[in-house]
Amino acid sequence: MASCAVYVDFRWKIDKSEIMNMKIHIIACAFLLAGFTACIDDESCLGGKAIPELTIAGNAEEMQVLNFNLGTDCVIRPNISYKGGTEENLTYTWSIGTYTNGTKGVLEVVSHERDLTYFFTQGGSYYAHLNVTDGVVGYAMDYQVNINRTFEEGYVLISKDEAGNGNMAFIKVMTPEEIEEGVEQIYMEHCLEQMNEGVSERGLVDVKIGDVTVGAWPNTSVVTRLMVSVGNKCYFIDLNTFTIISEIDYTTVFSGFKATDFLYSDALYYPCAYDREMGKFVHLDLQYMFGYEYSYFKNVSFDDFYLCTYAGSYYSTKVLFVNYDSPEVAEYNAYAPYYGLSTYFPSTLDMLADEELISTFMGGNTPDYPNITPLYILTRSKINRNKVSLYSMTSGSYVAPENFSTQECELTDDMVLPVQGTPFVASPVYNRHYYYVGNNVYVMLMENAFTLAKKDEVAISFPTNEEITYMSVNIDTEELYVATYDTTTKRGNFYIYDTADVRADNQTSPAPKKAYRNCADKISSILYKPRV
Length: 532
Prior knowledge:
- By secondary structure, this protein is mainly beta.
- The protein folds into 4 domains: 139 residues, Immunoglobulin-like; 145 residues, no CATH class; 97 residues; 109 residues, no CATH class.
- The protein has 3 helices and 39 strands.
- Strands 4, 7, 8, 9, 11 and 12 form a 6-stranded mixed β-sheet that branches.
- The longest helix has 18 residues.
- The radius of gyration is 33 Å and the shape is elongated.
């Protein structure tokens, strides 16, 4: 082993031990100033004592590249080798900085643990800097950390477990590059809680997408936000990071308000939350960001709501308001006074007095009215239980009994009648109306005479342990979204079908384009989130 000599000038009258300490400090400072990019040779010594050897696996001159998904913890476990000393003497300092176009940003110390666990709230490239030292020797290592933009494009699923706990899940639409590289499908559950510390998904209601006006006039701009409603408030979140930008508290309008429904459509202009027990609406101002009671919605309450997506002269949405006991179907119409009406909710009035209201929906175009989408009401007679009726309105500026015509069919044992509250969804291209009962999807055709599907005309059949909980059509892509709940595993599944394949004359169930199994809890809503 090589030796080290220590020279002392006694004319200074300085104790040899003090000079030894000075040399140790000088050596230590030299390594600290060098950024610990080199280790000390095993042959080195100080006062006859070997200096510990400290290294970190990897190339200290070139950053290791690590990739993580936004919404998951960034975990780095360095392979540290330490010989000639006690590891308890080692201290660790992790710092994080941005790394944009090869330029390192300012570092911020984030941890003193041996392994780094860090949560990024924004996608992009960063670098993690690690310093390890025992006070005498040290080593440094940099890591390039790429946080993939998980939320660029995909599906937002709203679900609840059996205990009523909410779960906002996200399924990413994988890019061609990710598919080619063999990257596993990216799922994330409870992403509202994951991306926003201290936020709870308890009482999760629904999610919508809409435009929010920001800034003061005349320097205003419009940004797109996800609107996530829980029981007492609505969160407005960034579409690419799922972090909360702002919120509106419903209880500032009505004390004790607890949303059970969250409604938004072209016809309503502004989103609103509804408390079924209280019978109150809270509307949301999307420019000044506050909740209020809209005068047109005062003193009105409903049992249920049907959100209809349809294709008239252009794709649009409408909310149909329903009372089952009355029974009655209504729609909101801000121009009702111009038609001489005393309410902003024109309805069917007593037209359905002798009927059991089963469902209401909007469908595809008809040859006679190419730019008008019919409004349908499906009923069963209270007097003659074998009579099923389909009321349809294809003309008129508002819902009114005089604007409806009626078709009837005789209910037979081989027909499939849905239960009350079952939603119907339509394919505008194929003019098919889909509905579900239990674990089967059926098609109701209305090209000729109105009739219900028969039991042997199953369009899609799922295993008996999978009950359908949600269904909708993406009319931009002509895709049918179906969510099921596995009663054995207590988990939700999400399937995507091409509507061209979902027909009444299928001999076997068509294969889905995509199948995402065990991806959520019991699913009540699915929203496609485009790339923004």
